[in-house]
Design goal:
Elements (H helix, E strand, L loop, with lengths): L11 H13 L7
């Protein structure tokens, strides 16, 4: 399985939404 690192600046509200979705998948934003 290949891995990649993605770094981006996002608005706090977008980050919170993404964290909520990833949390449902058992992941974190840092994964």
């Amino acid at each position: 399985m290949s891995t990649s690192v993605v770094r981006a600046r996002v608005e706090e509200s977008v980050k919170e939404d993404a964290a909520a979705v990833l949390g449902e998948l058992g992941l974190t934003v840092s994964d």
